[in-house]
Amino acid sequence: MTDLYTLTEQAIAGLGVELVDVERAALGLLRVTIDREGGVTIEDCEQVSRQLSRVFEVENIEYKRLEVGSPGVDRPLRTRRDFDRFAAQQARVEVKLREPRDNRKVFTGILRHKESSDGTTTETFCLEFDIKKNETQTIEFAFDDIEKAKLDPVLDFKGKKR
């Protein structure tokens, strides 16, 4: 699968989109998930699908159906680049750590870069989360401490800002 991921990443490199995931599913489905700053459009999906159809045919990649789509609002975070991007945006994320902290592995809060004493960012991330009403706690962790992570936006379908 790593070879398929690498091949797919190279094939779409010039299209201005970022590869999030490549997944083989039941009944010959090959699912490719892409993203870009500002969101993915239908045209992006069409362009990537056309490009990959050609490349996969030449490379003899077997599949029955190719599906190209966006990662959605709960986008998985897999690479260091993902964490840097969303820490800069101070996005709300759910992080599952490899080792428990205070008898917990899963934390949901605002992702940030840890700043050093001189104000520059470090290789460490911080996650600020609520423990009680009007009381927050912050944990620090390195990229290698993460088992799994995804965006965890707050959705409000009533149109009110929170």
Provide a quick synopsis of the model.
Belongs to the RimP family. Residues 9-74 form the Ribosome maturation factor RimP N-terminal domain. With 162 residues, the chain is α+β, with helices and mostly antiparallel strands.
Question: What does this entry look like structurally?
Answer:
- This protein is α+β, with helices and mostly antiparallel strands.
- The chain folds into 2 domains: about 1-70, GMP Synthetase, Chain A, domain 3 (2-Layer Sandwich); about 80-150, Roll (SH3 type barrels), CATH 2.30.30.180.
- The protein contains 3 helices and 8 strands; from the N terminus they run αββαβαβββββ.
- It has helices at about 1-10, 40-60, 80-90; strands at about 20-25, 30-35, 65-70, 90-100, 105-115, 120-130, 135-140, 145-150.
- The strands form 2 sheets. It has a 5-stranded antiparallel beta sheet with strand order 7-6-5-4-8.
- A hairpin with a 5-residue loop joins strand 5 and strand 6 (about 120-130).
- The longest helix is centred in the N-terminal third of the chain and has 17 residues, at about 40-60.
- The protein starts with a helix and ends in an 11-residue tail after the last strand.
- The mean pLDDT is about 90.
- This is Ribosome maturation factor RimP.
- Belongs to the RimP family.
- It is found in: Cytoplasm.
Number of spatially distinct domains: 2
Please tally the helical runs, counting DSSP H or I stretches of 4 or more residues. 3
Q: What can be said about the biggest beta sheet?
A: 5 strands, antiparallel
CATH topology-level fold name of the largest domain: SH3 type barrels
Shape: elongated
Query: Which CATH C-level class of the largest domain is it?
Result: Mainly Beta
Q: Roughly what fraction of the amino acids lie in strands?
A: 35-45%
**Alpha-beta classification:** alpha+beta
Instruction: State the oligomer.
Output: single chain
Please tally the β strands and state the result. 8
- Rounded mean pLDDT score: 90
Rg over CA atoms: 19 Å
* N-C termini distance: 41 Å
Strand arrangement, largest sheet?
7-6-5-4-8
Per CATH, the architecture of the largest domain is Roll
Low-confidence segments, ≥5 residues, pLDDT <50? Answer: none
Family: Belongs to the RimP family.
Domain Ribosome maturation factor RimP C-terminal: 77-152
Function: Required for maturation of 30S ribosomal subunits.
Domain Ribosome maturation factor RimP N-terminal: 9-74
